[in-house]
User: Fold FAM20 C-terminal domain-containing protein from Danaus plexippus plexippus.
Amino acid sequence: MDYGISGHRVPLHGRVKIGDDTDKGRSAYIEFRKRFLQKSNGSNGSREYEQSAPSETSGGDAEPRTPATPADRFEDLQRILVFQLQGKSDDNPVVVPPHRDLNVLRPENPTIGEMEDLEPRIAEYVSKAVFSSTTEQAQSSEVCIKTKQVIGVCHKSRTLHVGSLVFSVAPSPGVPPQPTHVHPCTTQPKPTRSGKSSIVNASNLEKFQLKIAQHELYEDGEPLVSAILRDMTFEPILHVEQKEGGTQLKLIIDYPNGVQALFKPMRFARDVQTLPNHFYFSDYERHNAEIAAFHLDRILGFRRAMPVVGRVVNMTTEIYDVTEGDILKTFFVSPANNFCFHGKCSYYCDTGHAICGNPDMLEGSFAAFLPTSDLAERKVWRHPWRRSYHKRRKAQWELQSDYCDTVRSTPPYDSGRRLLDLIDMSIFDFLTGNMDRHHYETFKMFGNETFTLHLDQGRAFGKAFHDELSILAPLLQCCTVRHTTLAVLLKFHNGVPLSKVLRDSMKADPVNPVLWEPHLAALDRRIVTVLDAIRKCIDKLENPLPNELNSVV
Ligand SMILES: Nc1ncnc2c1ncn2[C@@H]1O[C@H](COP(=O)(O)OP(=O)(O)OP(=O)(O)O)[C@@H](O)[C@H]1O
Ligand SMILES: [Mn+2]
Assistant:
């Protein structure tokens, strides 16, 4: 089934509208949008904000006042949660109770390490491995471990590759680095012929990657997360190269021990918003959006985004000096005497869109690298609610009011956790204003019953004064949400505001303040809108409108 663009065209220069107002359907989305737009300054702050120049200034240390206690505590929604925890209200089709949610039940939750039979084996290798050197191995790399599959390759010298792990073998003083050979079945350590060897433990990122599980990237409170953030912040940068593919410039950063990060450079100050005449697909990426989205994903309890940290690098010593290839030819000094480069990519990689240091210090986001495909291949899925990526075309979901019924009856959205994951993602994206969710990825080895990665938030946090309701289309069209997601939203709405928790979480980042204050304020406002939407879904269920009425609302 193709969830792609419809090919339907609106008149040239016509405004691209969201939703079809003439559609006589059952779509909560269209109804909600109408109601939402009719609202004036509602007491709960749920209104569409126009793009307007704010009076606040960017950044700054002064903590703004947190919003006054909201008038509406959504007690009706709270009651549903309490009933469900008491084993009542189980049949509520809008709020999926924990005991029907595979993300909560997790009958199985193996890690990549367990699936690949790596974790226990590595421990075994550490205790059993014996290193020796033979001259013939020096000629080429060879396969040196066989278990369920080939997982270890001896490389030219001093390193042993096991999946994405690289073990270094330190030679004795005075002995040149030697090729290594592992005897995994040897229980008694044998003396090596030409020197003692030792195994350097896997890096924090490698350990993290092996612990990625079927239902989440990392566990709540996982200490490796802050260890990785620290590594990416303080470890020396050994090598840099441009990442192929994608539309905008990204660099792959190599640290010691095989640790890698995906670097997105800062292009604008925090308070520069998406240009009013730019579509979502021609917006620039914002490095700070990647940092903020990682924190937000963690705070909301999803744990589906890789750790990201901000860092200021010296463009000369930490980029120019450690890179090679065509990218070197794109470095130059600007008229303002700043060191700049533009790299090579399909958009915005020219002198007019150069990335410039100040004068040669450059800020960027560093996202911990996902496991390589050798260790854990990913499957790329077309997002059913993908936008048209065309200035005059609409996507199918924008035209068909019962679109969710179509999605719901199609695997993998017809059972299990997948549809609920997309609804979580739409709430996450609505909070951050990310309209750029064209594809999503999962780890192949876990099959369909696995979480969807929250990858690529570069176009989030672009408009602080506009709430893009169409991002919520999956929630509004399907009218279903996890109990746990609703509980988290209510917790922040009625307790310590999300803006405060996120601001505090990001204080530890080296490039704090990460977000412009109006973007933080927008989060608290948008939570109300999501809660309103869920309430609307429940109301519709409890008080279905007669058919004729339904068609005119
Ligand atoms: N942390 C990561 N580690 C490894 N690979 C990653 C990571 N994040 C993203 N990628 C891969 O790199 C690709 C491009 O990344 P991303 O989508 O963030 O960049 P982009 O320039 O916005 O790309 P596009 O223009 O296609 O949206 C992704 O499709 C993903 O497969
Ligand atoms: Mn992107």
Summary: Residues 75-105+203-542 form one domain. The pocket of adenosine-5'-triphosphate (ligand 1) is lined by residues 246-248, 250, 262, 285, 306, 367, 369-370, 455-456, 458 (CB under 6 Å). The CA atoms of residues 3 and 384 lie 5 Å apart. Residues 517-542 form the longest helix (26 residues).
